[in-house]
Specification:
The protein has 188 residues and is of the alpha/beta class. The protein contains eight helices and five strands; from the N terminus they run βαβααβααβααβα. It has helices spanning 16-27, 37-43, 53-77, 100-107, 111-115, 130-135, 143-157, 172-187, and strands at 4-9, 31-34, 82-86, 120-124, 163-166. α1 crosses α8. The chain is globular.
């Protein structure tokens, strides 16, 4: 049986990882978390230093198929009511060197098919405070670049019929309340 599935997406430092931790703590076994495929791929040794089109395309192919497989595995092996994905299959389209249409062609899919994979989309935008963003020490892009990625991700997911956009907030607990309420409503 296919379970409900939502994707947490958004620009860098939007709070997706924190949201996953909060959701798991709040909802326990009612939800199954799917880790971000890109993090798994890059932390597993895939080289990140080359930004050539060929390198980016190779990485995005691997990430796309890993996303599909990780989500399928969660669906068939978990007893949870809801699968919560750290990023979704569409996120890679914003990094694709030749644009989204070429991404869909290369992956053998369509925008509509990928949108249909998810019952809901929860978009978390980066915080507006430059000092906070810089203090995370894990970012490879500037705050301006993070907002540019966020705009592209907003655009690629804009046609999903059940999407909520949580703007950057000064205090994360404001985001956490919105996220908790959204997931609670999906579970009921």
């Amino acid at each position: 049986m296919t379970k409900k599935k939502i994707v947490l997406t958004g620009g860098p430092c939007g709070g997706k990882t924190t949201a996953l931790s909060i959701l798991k703590e709040m909802f326990g076994n009612k939800i199954e978390l799917v880790q971000e495929a890109a993090t798994l791929i890059y932390s597993g040794g895939f080289p990140r230093k080359d930004g050539s089109a060929a390198h980016v395309e190779a990485a995005q192919h691997i990430i796309f198929y890993a996303v599909h497989q990780l989500e399928h595995l969660a669906d068939v092996t978990s007893d949870a009511q809801l699968i919560v994905c750290d990023r979704g299959s569409l996120d890679g389209a914003v990094y694709w060197p030749k644009g989204p249409e070429d991404f869909f062609k290369a992956m053998g899919t369509t925008l509509e098919a990928e949108l249909a994979r998810y019952d809901a989309v929860l978009h978390l935008s980066p915080p507006p405070q430059k000092d906070f963003y810089a203090s995370t020490n894990v970012r490879t892009e500037t705050l301006e670049q993070a907002f540019e990625v966020d705009r592209k991700i907003l655009k690629i997911w804009e046609k999903h019929p059940n999407r909520i956009v949580v703007p950057g907030k000064e205090h994360y607990f404001e985001k956490a309340e919105i996220i908790k309420d959204f997931v609670e409503n999906l579970l009921h």
